[in-house]
Amino acid sequence: xxxxxxxxxxxxxxxxxxxxxxxxxxxxxxxxxxxxxxxxxxxxxxxxxxxxxxxxxxxxxxxxxxxxxxxxxxxxxxxxxxxxxxxxxxxxxxxxxxxxxxxxxxxxxxxxxxxxxxxxxxxxxxxxxxxxxxxxxxxxxxxxxxxxxxxxxxxxxxxxxxxxxxxxxxxxxxxxxxxxxxxxxxxxxxxxxxxxxxxxxxxxxxxxxxxxxxxxxxxxxxxxxxxxxxxxxxxxxxxxxxxxxxxxxxxxxxxxxxxxxxxxxxxxxxxxxxxxxxxxxxxxxxxxxxxxxxxxxxxxxxxxxxxxxxxxxxxxxxxxxxxxxxxxxxxxxxxxxxxxxxxxxxxxxxxxxxxxxxxxxxxxxxxxxxxxxxx
Length: 375
Fold this sequence. Notes:
The protein has eleven helices and 16 strands. With 375 residues, the protein is α/β, with parallel strands linked by helices.
């Protein structure tokens, strides 16, 4: 099947572009000795786990189901962090995860005995209270009142027995200069305990595969922790694995006018690309321009009854018409993992494009997928 023959709406992930990203990440691993694991919260297309496993060290999870996914589908290192663990899930988590990271000393005290008895590596999440983000407050773990990590003022070193690593996750789509700033704060606030650790996890949010990313600075940060404290270094990017490696195909269903020309698509911001509303951001659309750049301006909206189900305003060289196919780019990350069926909106199909340009549909969804998740 060719790209133009796929149904809409449909996510299409390009295997060659995924592998391009993986080679960049693996290069960092080879040059530094650091380990990089896939953050499944951003991308968890298991059809590509065998390929990802060829280049990365494993997976990281945010709870039991992601942990099971990484364990069953990749079977390499399996890390987990959650703000709190459930008592009815912790035994299974311990049985399938080799690195278990706790968010607080109370959680550590509650569960570390079981984890250590099973031979697991125990980590503690710290909060360096160093915000380097602007405009993405919803994704800033160092914001005031954050749920994430232990602050320096609340640190209890007498409870560190059995803890072999520290973990911080503060970045969101950021470059390595922000990592360097954060690392300075980590050393300033928690440096006295780093010599007694065996490993440190830099978390995710590193846009390593972006064209302007400063990889030498990243590698200097890694080597600094290795040489100064003799630590094994982990990174857990999610977006960097699938950055700019996927598309969302959609079709124009109808045209409408209300002070601006409006095109209704067979997709939805709230159901199929929720970060458009949460971040917010304007997703790239192939062949389009900014408002005023091209002669024909349209507001692109979804099918749902939510008034704010609007993807954005785009300009085109020619007027849109019903049946036109539009292709949104960078749609592999935080899309498939966040889809929902609000309003009974069908989920997009998922397709894989191989290195020869041939496409195959990996999964299609129907009414039963909507009905089956409801009581």
